[in-house]
Design goal:
The complex is a heterotrimer of chains A (95), B (483) and C (504). Chain A is built from 3 helices and 3 strands. Chain A has 95 residues and is α+β, with helices and mostly antiparallel strands. In chain A, strands 2-3 form a two-stranded antiparallel ribbon. Chain B starts with 5 loop residues before the first helix and ends in a 12-residue tail after the last helix. Chain B has 483 residues and is of the alpha/beta class. The longest helix of chain B is centred in the last third of the chain and has 21 residues. Chain B is built from 15 helices and 11 strands. Chain C folds into 3 domains: 288 residues, no CATH class; 115 residues, no CATH class; 60 residues, Arc Repressor Mutant, subunit A (Orthogonal Bundle), CATH 1.10.10.410. Chain C contains 16 helices and 18 strands. Chain C starts with 15 loop residues before the first strand and ends with a helix. Chains A and C meet through strand 1, helix 3 and strand 3 of A and strand 3, helix 1, strand 11, strand 17 and strand 18 of C. Strand 1 of chain A pairs parallel with strand 3 of chain C, so a sheet runs across the interface.
Chain lengths: 95, 483, 504
């Protein structure tokens, strides 16, 4: 029920490189799961508000105060590729 | 001494009968000897643990321990950021990630004097019910090493059950602490959502993630919760309600307590041995003075489907940041998109990829309202049913899981695995507190869990009932034999 | 370009875009999206400072780096500033609003989603009135919402050949206010006027420092052409990251012509995002297809909704200052100033207040205006609060200087001298005049003596004057001014010279 095209489109959106075999297996498994999930669609939820938060809190904010930052070295410590003070990434080209 | 509870240990420390350092060394030695078979730990914090134990010992010697957790040897699921100690979330994509900060949970445990032994194994990014989806190794159930300890917090559950830590923390999103607690014969508590800060807990599903303790008994559970609960300015979803003395609240018994038994938790698919054990447990509560009545939660059957839309949707968003740019694994690519796609393909396991795909699909244009939108509305329906039930009763009693611990590799179909969570999902979705407490064993000697669910922020009532039940039954005394 | 040739438009009629080479005519339809960095001390969701220009990646923390496990917490002051702006722009502040996650992958966005607002923004349905050559126009503002800024991408080496990009996350998480105008702007010129006026409002409110070079204020434009008389809008093109008023106008002028040429040649306009190349003055398609996004918005689960108390909103409204346009109009009506003067004097709130303080001290509105616009502004190097605070000349002192001219104590020329001394060492003009003996000589008797001397010393000039060169009289005035050390009252000298010459 989910097409191969859908799988490829979603994989692109999610930045996941899937092999042919993986895409097919994913298509099968997702179809099964989605068929199960589809039972939800039949439920009558007219006028029901969605639950975005399990807690009924509102207006939680913080004062505009500064806190100490990480040093450059600590901020960059986990960087897979570092160039001086920057994070370095491969070039960005058209999709 | 191994198998002693935290409160027994710290009482002994205060009386000068035991040394925090000796105990820490004993646990570390036991881990060295037995964990190769159990696989509870991913990273041992040997030096830090001993240093913390020495400081604890000095405080006890000076007559000034910081509290009832001072010197307690605990383990943390590898989903909590620990400064300077790698935090992998059971994933290759974070195999080398070393956080520059501590989770609030970690801060508070350190402030309470706890001795952190190490980081425990888990299903990758907390997605799973068996700890078979860790990128590193499987964890085995101390009661039967051919079986799973449950998941995703299987490492923490196995550590407590196997005497490799006196207490532990995990996270419960759809049941990931309660289910392993049931499988491993220990106590697992999912507090009310927002009761314990999520700052530093690597997010899986933000509106469903709960920081949750494992312990050998309810007193320990109350101690662990009390040390870490409370408002955190770094977590906007943490509740500001004052933290009661959970240990003091344990006294009082269950006389007059109204307990509801939901019909829908006892249907087809429930192992008959579990049903029998749970019903006997409910009888014990009745004998202790509670009144029992039937309730109905008709939306229970939709819980799994709802959860498996909302959780993957939020997960697909929370995991978008793992792309090889700032931290973690990077697989080289010809350009940025290629690099990110290869990194994520290599760094994530099959279950994580599956859920990211599911979640992205559920949020994508054209499907958003039908899937994500609808699921969040069904979540409201589930919540309303609980509210209606709690107008009549104070607690709900039910099984924690539909089956006992299964064999490794037994549930290879994703959907079959998801069905493990059918009884635990609803309390996660509604944010209500729920605890799994041991209530017996099946004929093969595998543990069975009783689940109690309470009103929001009513951990005192929940723990009081669990404590009364626990004190009236012998299950705590039986421990797995690991040699 | 937007108003073909010298054809006079009737007021209110929108400027027409004439396609090169002939009919039909098109209406230009422009909407502007403005991103303004809010003037807070700390970032939107964490406590890192928002200061500009720090060393790369030195103003970050686990939260704005999007590290595993972190959570955002909303900056209250950012919300306040957003509400301030919303009220000033006549938007309706929503009773409830919430944050939402906007998903797309880009290395300048640490979480690969931006915390923004989607279905429930902070405020909606406002407008800004602007003054264009065709008269006043009301430009609708559809919505105003809060979000976090992204980091800064620098290309390693030459952009075209770069094999890598470098990322600095200092800017990641800075609070942004985004406003989206309705497509009510009808020409590139109007768009620039709107942006200028919008910026002036934000500066007046203290909501944003409006520094476009530093990126505090950024603008994207949506532009399409609609055949005159048609009801449906044409295909719109987005032009991104226009970082000065001039570039906004240039980019739009180029783009409008590009679209007009394409339509004339029978080509379709492709819906796309284009970047303005300031060096060439052209727009070109963006290299990545980031515009084809499915943002997969959903409410931010780590932040709880905002329900702003109407009483609090009312208290913010009371603190709103008089806004630039209203002040400009009042300067014209109250002080009788020309529109030109009013425009300059109100370009900053600090300057307008300086001016008004001076006029309160001495009621010569035009005189003080001239001094502020020419002498003071030239010396200050800026009209903002900081520049005026540095000025050694207080409004009352400037007013006193002008009063000394008006009551004849000193001449305009001497006043410039006094002004220079005030700039150098501060001090009060009366004291300086007294100390330096600069009081203007207005005693006709004393001046007559000097005039007689000047006339006696210049028989040739007298002869020139007599032979009809009226301008020769100037030489005598000059002589007298010089002889008096500049202190002679020029008007009196002039009169005396004329009188005496006429009697010769």
């Amino acid at each position: 029920m989910i097409s191969r095209e859908d799988v490829e489109h979603v994989a692109r959106l999610a930045r996941l490189a899937l092999s042919e075999a993986e895409s097919e297996r994913m298509r099968e498994q997702l179809s099964g799961i989605l068929a199960y999930i589809d039972t939800l669609r039949a439920l009558d939820t007219a006028g029901v508000e969605p639950t975005s938060h399990a807690v009924p809190l509102v207006n939680v904010m913080r004062d505009d105060e500064t806190r100490p930052c990480l040093s450059q070295d600590v901020a960059l410590a986990n960087a897979p590729d570092r160039s001086d003070d920057f994070f370095r990434v491969p070039r960005i080209i058209e999709d | 001494m191994i198998g002693a509870t935290i409160h027994e240990l710290t009482t002994a420390y205060a009386a000068g009968e035991r040394s925090p350092v000796a105990v820490a060394e004993a646990y570390l030695a036991r881990i060295d000897a037995l964990d190769p078979r159990v696989g509870a730990y991913l990273t041992l914090m040997r030096d830090e643990a001993l240093a913390a134990a020495r400081l604890s010992e000095a405080r006890y010697r000076a007559g000034r321990p910081v509290g009832p957790l001072d010197g307690a040897p605990v383990a943390l699921k590898d989903v909590f950021c620990t400064r300077g100690v790698r935090t992998t979330c059971g994933s290759r994509i974070l195999e080398t990630f070393v956080p520059p900060y501590d989770a609030t949970l970690v801060d508070r445990l350190r402030a309470a004097g706890a001795v952190i032994l190490g980081k425990t194994n888990m299903d990758e990014f907390a997605m799973g019910s068996s700890t078979e989806h860790s990128a590193f190794h499987v964890t085995r159930n101390p009661w039967d090493l051919t079986r799973v300890p449950g998941g995703s917090s299987g490492g923490s559950a196995a550590a407590v059950a196997g005497g490799l830590a006196a207490g532990a923390f995990g996270t419960d999103t759809g049941g990931s602490v309660r289910q392993p607690a049931a499988f491993c014969g220990v106590v697992g508590l999912k507090p009310t959502y927002g009761r314990v800060s999520r700052y530093g807990l690597v997010a899986f599903a933000s509106s469903l993630d709960h920081v949750a303790p494992f312990a050998l008994d309810i007193v320990d559970t109350a101690l662990l919760l009390g040390a870490v609960a409370g408002h955190d300015p770094l977590d906007a979803t943490s509740v500001a309600a004052p933290v009661p003395d959970y240990v003091a609240a344990l006294a009082g018994g269950v006389q007059g307590l109204r307990i509801g038994v939901p019909d829908e938790y006892f249907g087809a698919g429930l192992d008959p041995e579990i049903e029998r054990a749970v019903r006997v447990a409910i009888d014990v509560l009745r004998e202790l003075g509670a009144t029992i009545e039937r309730v109905s939660l008709p939306s229970t059957e939709h819980g799994v489907a709802t959860y498996y839309v909302v959780a993957p949707a939020e997960a697909s968003s929370n995991l978008a940041r793992y792309d090889g740019v700032k931290y973690g694994l990077r697989v080289p690519g010809k350009d940025l998109i290629d690099m990110a796609s290869r990194t994520r393909a290599a760094g994530f396991g099959a279950e994580v990829k599956r859920r990211i795909m599911l979640g992205t699909y559920a949020l994508s244009a054209g499907y958003h309202d039908a899937y994500y939108g609808q699921a969040q509305k069904v979540r409201t329906l589930v919540r309303r049913e609980f509210e209606a039930a709690f107008a009549r009763v104070d607690l709900l009693a039910a099984p924690t899981t539909p089956s006992v611990a299964f064999a490794h590799g037994a549930k290879s179909d994703p959907l079959a695995m998801y069905m493990n969570d059918v009884y635990t999902i609803p309390a996660s979705m509604t944010g209500l507190p729920a605890v799994s407490v041991p209530c017996g064993f099946n004929a093969a000697g595998l543990p069975i869990g009783l689940q109690l669910i309470g009103r929001a922020l009513d951990e005192p009532t929940l723990l009081r009932a669990a404590h009364a039940y626990e004190q009236a039954t012998p299950w705590r005394q039986r421990r797995p034999v690991l040699s | 370009m937007s108003s073909g040739g010298a054809r006079r438009r009737t007021p209110g009629e929108p400027p027409a875009t004439v396609v090169r080479g002939g009919p039909p005519s098109y209406d230009t339809v422009i909407g502007l999206e403005v991103h303004a960095q809010l003037a807070t001390s700390s970032k939107m969701f964490c406590g890192c400072p928002t200061t500009f220009g720090a060393a790369p990646n030195s103003r970050t923390c686990p939260i704005c780096l999007g590290m595993p496990g972190v959570l955002p917490v909303t900056n209250r002051r950012a919300v306040e500033l957003g509400v301030r702006a919303a009220l000033a722009l006549d938007l309706r502040v929503n009773a409830a609003c919430r944050f939402a996650r906007k998903h797309y992958y880009y290395p300048d966005m640490p979480k690969n989603f931006q915390i923004s607002q989607y279905e429930e923004p902070l405020a909606e349905d406002g407008w800004l009135e602007i003054d264009t050559p065709d008269g006043a126009r009301r430009i609708g503002i559809q919505r105003l919402h809060l979000e976090e800024d992204v980091g800064r991408l620098v290309h390693e080496g030459d952009f075209a050949a770069a094999q890598a990009s470098l990322v600095d996350y200092n800017r990641s998480g800075v609070p942004l206010m985004e406003t989206v105008s309705r497509p009510d702007l009808r020409s590139p010129e109007e768009a620039a006027i709107y942006l200028r006026a919008f910026r002036a409002v934000l500066l007046y409110l203290g909501v944003c420092d409006g520094n476009m070079e530093q990126g505090s204020l950024r603008c994207d434009a949506n532009v399409s052409l609609r055949p005159r008389g048609a009801s449906e809008l044409g295909t719109k093109v987005e032009i991104k990251n226009l970082n000065s008023f001039r570039n906004v106008q240039r980019a739009l002028e180029y783009e409008v012509q590009r679209q007009a040429d394409a339509l004339a040649a029978g080509r379709r306009i492709v819906q796309e995002t284009r970047l303005f190349d300031a060096d060439r003055g052209t727009t070109r398609p963006m290299r990545s297809k980031e515009y084809a996004h499915d943002y997969r918005y959903f409410p931010e689960p780590d932040l709880v909704p905002l329900r702003l108390d109407p009483a609090w909103i009312a208290s913010v409204r009371v603190t709103l200052p008089e806004l630039p346009r209203a002040r400009r109009q009042r300067f014209v009506s109250q002080y009788g100033l020309p529109a030109y003067d009013a425009e300059i004097l109100t370009q900053s709130r600090a300057l307008a207040e300086y001016y008004e303080a001076a006029v309160r001290a001495h009621a010569n509105a035009k005189g003080i205006s001239n001094w502020v616009m020419t002498e003071l502004l030239r010396e200050l190097g800026g009209d903002d609060e900081a520049a005026l605070a540095r000025s050694p000349i207080a409004p009352a002192a400037l007013a006193a200087l002008v009063r000394l001219i008006d009551d004849g104590t000193i001449s305009g020329r001497i006043a410039k001298d006094v002004f220079a001394r005030m700039l150098a060492g501060g001090g009060d003009p009366e004291a300086i005049v007294r100390r330096e003996g600069l009081t203007q000589v207005a005693d006709a008797g004393a001046l007559e003596v000097l005039v007689d001397q000047a006339i006696a010393a210049n028989p040739k000039a007298v002869a020139d004057f007599k032979s009809g060169k009226a301008a020769a009289a100037k030489a005598f005035v000059g002589q007298v001014m010089k002889a008096s050390g500049g202190k002679a009252n020029p008007a009196i000298v002039d009169r005396l010279v004329q009188e005496k010459l006429s009697r010769i």
